Amino acid sequence: MIIRPRLVVFSDLDGTLLDHETYDFTPALPAIKALRARFGALILASSKTAAEIAPLRRALDFAHCPAIVENGAGILASERGSQHDSRSRYEELIGHLDALPDELRRSYAGFSDWDAREVAARTGLSLEAAQLAKQREYSEPGIWSGTEEGFTAFCNALNRLGVHVQKGGRFATLSFGGTKGQRVRELLARLEDKRVPVVSVALGDAPNDRDMLESVDIAVEIPNPAHPGIGKIARGGSQVLRKARLAGPAGWNEEMLAVLEEIE
């Protein structure tokens, strides 16, 4: 008897599954429906909060899958499982940020400094979505407005306090650690089953997706005209690397339909 491999897909959201400007995933619906029909897993991996991802995950009809939230700083459990780990360290994180010397602190502005209207203006989110984006538990996205030398000093000062700085497509995000790639490897280890092989796929568009793409069998870079892209990706022994022809959810759809056809 031929056993079909289980397909597990990890996907970034903004600029990848969601259009960079409109946050629409409609162009990807054919591939999403085909993935559901094949009983594949779709694990969203984003800088978004659990409060933002949960309704989107339901809209995609993959609420039975976990999700990677706040750039890998936390995991949102599936709705079939227990509640996600809600031991928030956000106040501690902001405390470290506010304790920096003034010349460093004043050059960084993040979600804790902005009200929902400003978050909406800076991200293009609706006011309602911006309010969900402010419900942070693990990390603080923000914008550095100082010099490159100052940013290096900012990162070094936070690193000494155990805070990591991860630069993405729009924001520099602070957290106590954890990357998308680390969470991908953690979740794949949970899914290991000698009876059913797993084929893992990851799709992303920004430098903070690199580690995630390096952790799977099939890595897909989605082009994003808003930034220069992911850069060089380290290739594993049997890994397949692809670059989508189209940007955003249209590229996601085209590449995932091709993957689904190939592994049949």
Automatic annotation (TrEMBL):
Keywords, in A-Z order: Hydrolase, Magnesium, Metal-binding
Claim: GTP-binding is one of the keywords in the record: no
Entries under Pfam families matching the protein: Hydrolase (PF00702)
Tagged with keyword Hydrolase: yes
UniProt xrefs under InterPro entries: HAD-like_sf (IPR036412), HAD-SF-IIB-MPGP (IPR006381), HAD-SF_hydro_IIB (IPR006379), HAD_sf (IPR023214)
GO MF annotations in UniProt: hydrolase activity
Coiled coil regions in record: none
Entries under NCBIfam families matching the protein: HAD-SF-IIB, HAD-SF-IIB-MPGP
Protein name from the UniProt record: HAD-IIB family hydrolase
